[in-house]
Design a protein that fits this description.
Blueprint: E1 37-42, H1 50-65, E2 70-75, H2 83-91, E3 96-101, H3 102-106, H4 125-132, H5 135-148, E4 150-154, E5 162-166, E6 180-183, H6 187-193, E7 199-202, H7 208-213, E8 219-223, H8 224-229, E9 238-241, E10 249-254, H9 255-260, H10 263-297, E11 301-304, H11 307-314, H12 324-331
Parallel strand pairs: 1-2, 1-3, 6-7, 6-8, 9-11
Antiparallel strand pairs: 3-10, 4-10, 5-8, 5-9
Helix pairs in contact: 1-10
């Protein structure tokens, strides 16, 4: 059973996977012999970053441990298109495992997951990482598989807290009044920033640099590492350390396709994507310190935010979740 009322959605989007073109697909949950299964893994993040390098290590481990019967092909830098493009490809039957966040997953079949996209949910990264492997998280994942047809492989790829990048600092929540702020097309972002007076504007991740450069948006929010990889600091040279989200990012695939894999392949995907998330998180923590130092060397202004004020200004986000908020926070302690 779900933790709150659920709405059933068509299981489409970036997390849907249909293994089109495979020579053979084993029966559901079966362990019999099968031809090699090859699945593409898509991310908009660039080559050379922590995420893509970790994905490559996940692919290597899976191929080795499966004796070559399961292979992942990693496509970085939006090679297969934007997040929206990949969603369309997956929905049309392309063989894609998608990088995806909890907010997007919520729209695919389990509203409870939207709480994970809320502001200031956990006090630190350790609490967030612990929750990602908790029984409460597993309940949410199972409900999504049952109602939305989407199987979460891992949701513990935590790239540190997110901050604000712009032409000026936003140390107080009221400083965002009237600011054209880039957000991804995810409802939880709107629910967080619109009450602060920001004018939220949807821009695909691969187009944020040009949107900032051309003044389509005045500011954008993101983690230190992801923004450094895409060089946002060149066109938004003022960073305000708000730490507003710790985004639950991970990888997911279609539940039907997952069930058609052998038990060995199912377990291997979950095991290696989860282990990859642990490695990525450690790598991102180290990289964030380095990148923040490089920002300052490049002349980027770094400002602290009044975090208690931001917390108070955004606490209304959780009003509709009832006791789920406490269950989630308790699971991370």
């Amino acid at each position: 059973m779900n933790l709150r009322k659920r709405t059933t959605f068509a299981a489409i989007g970036i997390a849907t996977v249909l293994l089109a073109g495979c020579a053979s697909t084993p029966s559901a949950g079966g362990d019999g012999d099968a031809e090699t299964v090859t699945i593409r893994v898509a991310t908009v993040n660039p080559e050379g970053g922590v995420e893509v390098e970790t994905l490559k290590s996940v692919a290597e481990a899976i191929e080795e441990k499966s004796d070559g019967t399961l292979k992942l092909e990693v496509y970085a830098s939006g090679q297969l298109g934007s997040t929206s493009d990949v969603a369309e490809q997956a929905a049309s039957g392309e063989n894609i495992i998608g990088m995806i966040d909890a907010g997007t997953l919520a729209g695919l079949g389990n509203e409870d997951l939207s709480i994970l996209g809320g502001p200031f949910l956990f006090e630190n990264a350790d609490q967030a990482a612990k929750f990602a492997k908790s029984d409460v998280m597993q309940e949410m994942a199972d409900a999504l598989a049952a109602d939305g047809g989407v199987r979460i492989l891992a949701l513990n790829w935590l790239d540190g807290p997110r901050h604000l990048f712009g032409q000026e600092a936003y140390p107080e929540p009221e400083d965002l009044e009237g600011v054209k702020l880039r957000t991804p097309p995810i409802e939880t972002w709107d629910r967080t920033f619109k009450p602060l007076g920001a004018v939220t504007t949807t821009v695909d991740s691969t187009e944020v640099y040009s949107a900032l450069e051309q003044g389509v948006v005045e500011a954008a929010e993101g983690p230190i590492n992801g923004t450094a990889d895409q060089k946002w600091q060149e066109v938004a040279p003022v960073v305000t350390l708000t730490q507003h989200f710790r985004t639950f990012i991970g990888y997911a695939m279609g539940e039907g396709t997952f069930q058609n894999l052998s038990t060995e392949h199912q377990e291997l995907l979950i095991e290696e994507f989860t282990a990859g998330g642990d490695r990525a998180m450690a790598g991102w923590e180290d990289a964030a310190d380095v990148n923040l130092g490089l920002f300052e060397e490049q002349g980027v202004e770094v400002h602290d935010a009044n975090i208690p004020a931001y917390q108070k200004a955004t606490e209304g986000f959780y009003e509709s979740y009832g006791d789920l908020l406490q269950r989630v926070r308790d699971a991370g302690k």
